[in-house]
Each structure stands twice: as structure tokens, then as C-alpha cells.
Amino acid sequence: REQLGTRYVFGGASPRRGFDCSGLVAYIARALHIAVPRTARQQARIGEPVPRDTAKLMPGDLLTFGRGSLISHIGIYVGNGRFIHASTKAGRVIETALIRPPARGIKPWKGVRRLASAAQPDRGAAPSEAP
């Protein structure tokens, strides 16, 4: 939640420059010593798939959004039915309810990926060293 309010910038991947959705995910993953690819489409293929069921979500799960088979947006589930993402519509990093009425410019929720089992700490960092 430290990045809430950081401005949206297409291609952005740092608090100083700003974030796009996949840049925010990559920045948070890097802080946790998890290597992830750069784009939402690539990030939607890593980790383990989780059923698209709100009862099965865990904080840290990646939520994917798009139309048809195209994934074009990604966010991080934080619990209690909410997720954090860099929103083009809001122009900044926001926390949003996952289940919300359809609206223009809001992409439908497509899937869930869990990285926890894929997490591998850097060789120099102890597993207990979380930021």
C-alpha cells in the first residue's frame, strides 16, 4: 500500500517515475526477491493458476483482466475482496473492490495466478528478510 497515489505512467516501473500495472507488479515482486516478466500478458502466465473464486484468493495473488483471451491489465490482491493496481482511468495507483459493476473502461476479471510457491529468495538474502 506504500505506492498508493503514485502516478500512472505507461511503461513506468518505479515510484519516482510512476507505474503502469505490470511495472507495479514487477516492482513489488522485485522487493520480495521474486523475478517476474515485465508485461501483464507475460505475468499472467507465471506461477500457479488459482480458480477464479473469491473464497480461494490469498493476499499477494495476481489478478488478471482483459477482454476475450487478451490479458491487458494486472493487479495484486490484498484481501477482503480488494486489490491494488496502477489504474489508467484514475491516473494513479489505487485500491479497488474486485467485484464491482461493469463500467466503461473497466476490464473484466479474467484469472488468478499465485506466485508464493514460485518465490525464490536471492542467494544473498535470508528468506526471512522481507521488506
Structural features, described:
The protein has 131 residues and is mainly beta. The chain is 11% helix and 31% strand. It is built from 2 helices and 8 strands, in the order E-E-H-H-E-E-E-E-E-E. 29% of the residues are buried.
Brief summary:
By secondary structure, the protein is mainly β. The protein is 11% helix and 31% strand.
H-E order = EEHHEEEEEE
Biggest sheet: strands, sense, closure? Answer: 6 strands, antiparallel
N- to C-terminal distance: 13 Å
Counting DSSP E segments of at least 2 residues, the number of strands comes to 8
Mean pLDDT: 89
Estimated helix fraction = 10-25%
Residue runs with pLDDT of under 50 for 5 or more positions: 118-131
| Tally of helical segments | 2
Percent range for β-strand residues:
25-35%
Structural class category: mainly beta
Structural Rg: 14 Å
Order of strands in the sheet with most strands:
3-8-4-5-6-7
What is the 3D shape?
A: globular
